[in-house]
Amino acid sequence: MSTDTPNETTDTDASTTTDHEGEALLRATDVTKTFDGLVALRDVSLDVRRGEIVGLIGPNGAGKTTLFNCISGVFAPTEGTVHLGDEEITNKSAHRVARSGLSRTFQITRPLEELSVLENVLVGAHIHTRRRGPAEDIAREQLSFVGLDERAAESAGDLTVGDQKRLELARTLATEPSILLLDEIMAGLTPTETQRMLDLFREIRESGTSILLIEHDMEAIMSVSDRVAVLDNGEAIAFDSPEAVASDERVIEAYIGGDVDADGDDGATSDATTTDGEQAGGDHDGDA
C-alpha cells in the first residue's frame, strides 16, 4: 500500500467510532433497483467518508451485492444517484467508474491461474498505465503490502484460498483507488487469516483509502468498521456506529430466526481479466 497518498491519515481503532468528519467520498442517494417488477433495492442511501471503513450487513437476499453493483457500474440504478467525490457516476460503465477511483472485489475469487502472481496484479496496475515498468512497480508494491512479494513468480493457481484472497486485494489496490468495495473477501478464511486481513484493512484506512465492506463474520465487521449500514428486504433500516447498530431493535428483529449474515448474496464472480467490475454474475438471482 502506497504511503505517499494525499489523503489524510485517520485513527486506526474502529472501536472508538471515529467520526471521520468531512464531506463524503462516496454517496449513494435514494437508490432503487428493480428487476422485471421485483424491487431489489428501495430508496437506499449511504455515504462513506475519506479514510473510513463502513460495514454493510443484512440477511441473505437483503440487496447488499445489488447495491454494490449499482454503485460500481455493473447495473444502472432504476432511480437514485451515486457520486464519487464531486463526480456523478450513476450511469457510468464499470470501467469508467474504476478509472474514477472505485475498485471492487466479487464474492468468488478467481485469479488467472495460468499466470504468475505478479502478472495477476499487473492486470490491476494496467488500468492506469500500459507501460510495463511503472505497472510492475505498482504491482510489486502491492504484493509487498499484502505479504506475497516472495511468491511473485509462482503460479497463481498454486496459492491457498487465503493467499488468493490477498492476491485479489493486491490486484484491487493496484488500480490505485480512493475507495474499495469488498464483497465477502474474508469468506473461507481461517481465524488467523481473517485477523491478518483485518490488519490490512486498518493499514489501508490509515493511508486515507476508504472501504465499503460486505462480510458475514459479524465479530470481524463490528471490530473493524467505523459505521455499519444494515439492509433488510432491499431497504436500509440502520446506519450508525457498530455499538448502536448491534443494539438496534429493527436490526435484531431482522435477524430473528436466522444468522446475522452477509453470505450467499449472489453468484457474482471476480474474473482477473477485468479490473472494473464488469462481471454482473446474476446478482438479482440471490441478492434481490
Automatic annotation (TrEMBL):
Domain of life: Archaea
Short name of one Pfam family: ABC_tran
Assigned keywords, A-Z: Amino-acid transport, ATP-binding, Nucleotide-binding, Transport
GO CC, one annotated term: plasma membrane
GO biological process, one term: L-alanine transport
CDD domains: ABC_Mj1267_LivG_branched (cd03219)
InterPro entries from the UniProt entry: AAA+_ATPase (IPR003593), ABC_AA/LPS_Transport (IPR051120), ABC_transporter-like_ATP-bd (IPR003439), BCA_ABC_TP_C (IPR032823), P-loop_NTPase (IPR027417)
Region of interest (Disordered), residue spans: 1-21, 257-288
Molecular function in Gene Ontology: ATP binding; ATP hydrolysis activity; L-isoleucine transmembrane transporter activity; L-phenylalanine transmembrane transporter activity; L-valine transmembrane transporter activity
SMART domains in UniProt: AAA
Residue ranges occupied by any ABC transporter domain in the UniProt entry: 26-258
Similarity comment: family membership: Belongs to the ABC transporter superfamily.
Purpose of the protein: Probable component of a branched-chain amino-acid transport system.
Name of this chain's protein: Probable branched-chain amino acid transport ATP-binding protein LivG
Native source species: Halococcus salifodinae DSM 8989
